[in-house]
Amino acid sequence: MAIIRCNKCALLAEHPDDFVGKNVACPKCGTPTPVYPALFFIEKLLDKYFAAQREVIRLTPATATAAPAPASEIAGIDLGNTDSLANELQHGPIYDWFHKKQIKVQANMRGVDTSGFFDEIAEAIGANLPVLKEVLERIRWSQQKEHASATISLERKSPEDAKAISTFCQQLYDFSFVAKCFHNKQENNVRLILQSAPTIRNFFNGEWLEWHALMTSLRHAKERGRRFSCARGLNLTLANGDPYEIDVFMLIDGSIPVCIECKSGEFRQNIDRYLALKKRLGLEGRQFVMCIAGLGDDNAKAFSAMYDLSFANERTLADKLNRLF
């Protein structure tokens, strides 16, 4: 059933779907009233609910402002399998931090829900990118070409690398990142039948690095017993209307902000934009980390010296965080 809501008498009632998009007379007062799809109406209600919830957090007196979860609570959480971070309250200190800078912010709750397998696969990639990079590239290329499968040759691979690739491909199948996985010993390759779900495509198109950066940050904070609030895929709107998205944002002990931008491809054309954002947020260069997949250590050091940003790769990100908290 569709929904009508009269703007004059506030009547809320169901109506046949055939009238969606049309105006009908309000059954109570007769005023012409639009008929909305039920899903559209529910989405609007949820938007208003979450907006009101964020406003409550913003208006809460400083003495009662939502604080990052105590280290004692975090210690009992399996960071690799929890949805306890995917709520408005956990994001509250982040909302408050940006509000003080007159920046509108919208968090993606699902971005920090680790109850799926995105974080496990991302950490596996981050731990062995030089070997697994070819698998990612083959999958991404096949997705872009709308191919149904991707084949990874194991020829000219060392026994150790071939085993690592085969094990990883099997893990992709076990966790449903691919629909099927065929180990062809005769032709010495692995053939993957791809999934077409947008979340899977986005993961292989670069989101894996965001998950890796998030998990690296969470584990680092937990190991050091630090309180934190975290977000992934944080949408910002500056006072002048300029939109930004922060891949990973951590607020340590309610006062130490850390921004991590993740790039698995070209990044140089965006440096000026990130420098502008860093300045607007009032961060030091070491607090704005550019995590570039596969970036050489020497290049990371050189870029950090050239720009007021902190460059790292998937392996050295933890070292950068260690200097911050």
Automatic annotation (TrEMBL):
InterPro entries documented for this protein: Restrct_endonuc-II-like, tRNA_endonuc-like_dom_sf
Origin superkingdom: Bacteria
GO MF term list: nucleic acid binding
Name of the protein in its database record: DUF1887 family protein
Organism of origin: Azonexus fungiphilus
